[in-house]
Amino acid sequence: MNAFEMITLSQGLNLSALFDRGQFMWCGILEVPLFQNFLVLWQDYVKRQTRFVSRKPANVIISTMEAVAGSMSLKVHRRDYKIRLEGISANKAGQFAVVLEVFEVAPSLFMVDARKAAGDTLEYHKFYKNFCAKLDNIIWKPSEGHG
């Protein structure tokens, strides 16, 4: 993860307007046609939607995610600040796995990045929405007017 990605994680700082130029997206000196622009923005949207920020200590974030995953009947494998959750896909046709990693982005501010490791993408997004709903007490939401 680079510094630009970390900056764009801030829910109060949306830099996309700096790059959107009508039907083209400026990437340094190069212009990317509309269709590719859409793909880039969609990928960015998906990335942003699978990250959240917390002001809780890292150990609280990790233990809460482990408890929620356990309540969802998922196997939990932990190493330092990375957790792998595994289970059977909803259609029982294969494996489903998600990797969650906790990063300290500033003192007392942590970002959790969730990535699909195995399984269907739609199922992953349904899982992520449900998972985050159960983590509501640790997810930081900036108050209106602070961004």
Describe what you observe in this structure.
The protein has 147 residues and is α+β, with helices and mostly antiparallel strands. The chain is built from five helices and eight strands. The protein has helices at 3-9, 16-19, 34-49, 58-71, 121-134, and strands at residues 20-21, 24-27, 30-32, 51-54, 75-79, 82-88, 95-106, 109-118. The strands form two sheets. A five-stranded antiparallel beta sheet has the order 4-8-7-6-5. Strands 1-2-3 form a three-stranded antiparallel beta sheet. The protein is globular and about 45 Å long. The two termini are 23 Å apart. The relative contact order is 0.16. Residues 14-32 have low confidence and may be disordered.
Search tags:
147 residues; alpha+beta; TATA-Binding Protein; 2 domains; 5 helices; ATP-binding; NAF/FISL_domain; manganese
Radius of gyration from CA coordinates = 17 Å
The chain-level structural class is: alpha+beta
Number of domains: 2
**Secondary-structure element order, N to C:** HHEEEHEHEEEEH
The CA-CA distance between the termini, in Å, is 23 Å
User: Count of helical segments?
Assistant: 5
Number of strands: 8
Mean pLDDT: 76
Question: Spans of 5+ residues with little confidence (pLDDT < 50)?
Answer: 14-32
Per CATH, what is the topology of the largest domain?
TATA-Binding Protein
